[in-house]
Each structure stands twice: as C-alpha cells, then as structure tokens.
Amino acid sequence: MKILYETAMSPLNLMPLYRVWHEVILVILIAYMNQTRMTDYTLAGLSESWVGSLTLNLLCYATVFVPGYFLIWYFKKSKYIERAGSGLVPRLITSCVYGQSYDKLATTDPSHTRSLPPEKTLSAKCMQLSFCFLGLQVSYLTWGVLQEKIMTKEYHNSEGSIGHFKDSQFLVFVNRILAFMLAAMYLTCSRQPRHTAPIYKYSYCSFSNIMSSWCQYEALKYVTFPTQVLAKASKVIPTMIMGKIIASKKYEYYEYVTAVLISIGMTLFLLGSTEAHGTTSSSTTMSGVIILVGYMSFDAFTSNWQGELFTQHKMSSVQMMCGVNLFSCLLTTTSLMQQGTFSLSLQFMLTYPAFFWDSLILSVCSATGQLFIYYTISVFGPVVFIIIMTIRQGLAILLSCFIYSHPVTLMGILGILLVFTAIFLRIYCSHRLKQVQQRKTLPDTTKV
Ligand SMILES: Nc1ncnc2c1ncn2[C@@H]1O[C@H](COP(=O)(O)OS(=O)(=O)O)[C@@H](OP(=O)(O)O)[C@H]1O
C-alpha cells in the first residue's frame, strides 16, 4: 500500500496523474450530459444555462485545486519540511505549503522583533481614510466607465469589420495579469517584510473573488433592477456576518444600526435616481436570488479572508496583491483555455487594436484600484472597505446624473442624507467608544 501511495505521488508521476484528472472531467461531463438528456448539445450549449456554465467553470478550476490539494496533502503527510534542503525548489515548496512560522522568524529576523508602530492620531487617521477613499473612488469610477464602454461598444478595424466583445472572464484575466506583473515587479525592487503566510492560502480569496465577479455578471440576467440594487446596497451586512463566522469578530450595536441605515439609504438613493436599464430581466427568478446570495457570500468572504491574513501574517498590501493575483491568473487562464475562449479573445484583440488599448487602460485602473483595496483592508479592515465601495456605486450614479442631466428625486436625496447621517454616526460613536475605553484603562496605567 505504502509503495503504491509513494509511486502515485512521486513527482515523476504527476503528469500521468494530471492526464487522468482530465479524463475524469470528461467522464463527469459526459455523465452530466447523459443524466440531463443533453447528449445532443455541445459544450457551448451547456454554458448557456447558468448551472451549466457554473459547472463548467468549477470543473475547470478543479483541475487546479484538486491536484494542488493532493500535493499539499502529500507534502504535509510525508513531513517534507523536516527533510527539506536549502535549494530553490525546497524553499519554494516550503513557502507554498507551510509558509514561514512567525515565531521562528522572530528569533532569526530582527525586522520581526521590532515593536508595534505608535497609535496614529485622529487627524492622521482621517487623512489616511480620505486617501483610501479618494484612491478607491478615482480608480473604480474610471474602471466602471471603461468596463461598460468595452462591453457595450462596437469595435471597428481598418478593413471595415465590426465586432462586439462579450467575454467578461477574459477581462477579469487581463485585469489580474497586469496587477500581478506590477506587484511582482514592485516586490523585486523594494524592501518588504519577510513573507510568512503559506502561499496556497491566497487561493481561497482568489477563488471567491473570481466567483463573486462571475455571479455579479450572471445575476444581471435573472433579477430585476430593484433586487439587484438591494443586494449591492446592503453588502455591508453580509460582510459583518462573515466577519463573525471567519474571524469571530464582535461588533458594537451602533455598527449594526449604521450598517442597516447605510443599506436602506443606498437602496432609496439608487432606486430614486436611476431607471431600470442594464438588466435583461423583467422578473426576479429563484435562479437570480441564488446567484445574488452567491455574489454577496463570495464578496463578503473575500475581504474578510484577506483581513484575517493581514492580521495573522502581517504581510504588506503589495505582497497580498501579488499572491491573490497569482492564483487569479492561474484559475482564469486554465478556465479560458479549457473552454477554448482564450484564443478567441486574443484574436479579437489582434483584429481590433482599439480594444487592446481600452483593455490596457482598464487593467491599469484595476491594478491601481487593487493597490487601494489591499491597503484599505490592511489598515481599516473589510467592513470600512465595503462601505467605501458601496458609496462608490452611489457616486457612479450621481456622476451619470450630472453628466447626462438626469434629475435626482426626493427619495434619492433622502437616501443620500440617510447614508451620510449613518456614516457620521458611525465615526462619532467609534470615537466616543475609544474615549470611554481610554478613560477606563487610565487608572491602571497610572498605578504602574
Ligand atoms: N476584496 C477584494 N479583493 C480584490 N478585488 C476586489 C475585492 N473586492 C472587490 N474587488 C474587485 O473590485 C471590482 C469591483 O467590485 P464590485 O463591483 O463588487 O464592487 S462594488 O459593487 O462597487 O462594491 C471587481 O473587479 P473585477 O473582478 O475585475 O470585475 C472586484 O473583483
């Protein structure tokens, strides 16, 4: 049994294992088609229903995750770390599977024994928050405009042909590859804290991030505009619930109350200021509700998991950006290649040079936006980040009302007032709470 296990898991045998996995996928697909009486349909047909398209995507991602899972399991089971040498490959395997223990580093690396930075003053914190807020708004407002342009614009070339680009997964890939390259370049030229997290841990939030993007695009086909607005405007509530599940976080009452007020205010504003365009559906179906719940859960998981990684491993935001995008590139490339759409999108890029330039600017905005995302989560945590992103949706609508001279209704104005009151309340209560806590701890410190 031991010999069988060792032969199967030997690195030399990994290629056949990988091929076997492809065979397994084909068998599952055929079984799926048989079971659902879809034998006459092609894979393209399968991807037309959301369940089919989701199954296809998940199977493609599984070709990365399943071998990865078995490799990690094998290295841990065989206690690889105890016999790992000092070459490049052992170091790489150790970083991917185990990371470097923070305690171990503290004894060897002086940069890890330094004391914590002093607590920032209120005005310094306000400056930092305004920096994150402005950075996220500018990057993602531009990104939103460009994304809509790419997905709706007709592209022309010098030979007179016209084309529409429709593959959102390719856009996600283009955004991630540039972000990964920029982060990797920055890491090689700058001094960074020692990286302690096992690299595979980034794959969880990378997967949830890709899945939340997929759900977001897919949901548009199955839900009415008000349902979609309600889901997007109330993202802060699932984020807090997920924080309780993942990190056992405790929130104060004022945080729950202001989260609900922000959600109600944003819903009123978005419903009061926009018309129901952009959605192809005139009714909300069960499928739509399932996909929206998926969107909110994956989105809430992503930022909370990232927040937890920052807390546990103290990596820099660029290290996080590099790690997450590494897996996002791996997952999206695998899926695009296996579904045969990668070459089609590249072909589109070659045929329509204007599309190349639009995608490049889109990825630059996305990469800048990601820098701000990771910085905001590392300094202020996932809930503040989600509130800023929720406000972004409101600002995007306000901007379009301003550009296209749409009026903002009374309900919209009430919504804005409610959101700002809730934010003010949140800042005020958090400040008051800190003062009370400081007063409580003051007698203890004077005794010492
Ligand atoms: N936590 C975290 N980490 C990394 N990237 C993230 C995160 N949250 C949002 N995003 C990316 O930001 C893009 C906009 O996301 P959303 O449309 O969900 O944001 S929002 O609706 O404005 O709240 C969107 O980019 P694309 O995936 O390229 O569409 C999200 O993937």
UniProtKB/TrEMBL annotation:
- Read off the InterPro entries from this record: EmrE-like, SCL35B1-4/HUT1
Broad class of the protein's primary localization: membrane
Q: Where is the signal peptide?
A: none
Pfam families per the record?
UAA
So where does this one cross the membrane? Answer: 12-34, 54-75, 126-146, 170-189, 253-272, 284-301, 322-342, 411-429
Compartment(s):
Membrane
Q: What are the GO MF terms of this UniProt record?
A: 3'-phosphoadenosine 5'-phosphosulfate transmembrane transporter activity
What is this entry's stated membrane topology?
Multi-pass membrane protein
Q: Which residues form a coiled coil?
A: none
Q: Which GO terms describe its cellular component?
A: endoplasmic reticulum membrane; Golgi membrane
SUPFAM superfamilies given for it? Multidrug resistance efflux transporter EmrE
Its keywords, alphabetically, are:
Membrane, Transmembrane, Transmembrane helix, Transport
State the family it belongs to. Answer: Belongs to the nucleotide-sugar transporter family. SLC35B subfamily.
Q: Which named protein is this? A: Adenosine 3'-phospho 5'-phosphosulfate transporter 1
Source organism: Scylla paramamosain
For this protein's source organism, the top of the classification is: Eukaryota, Metazoa, Ecdysozoa, Arthropoda, Crustacea
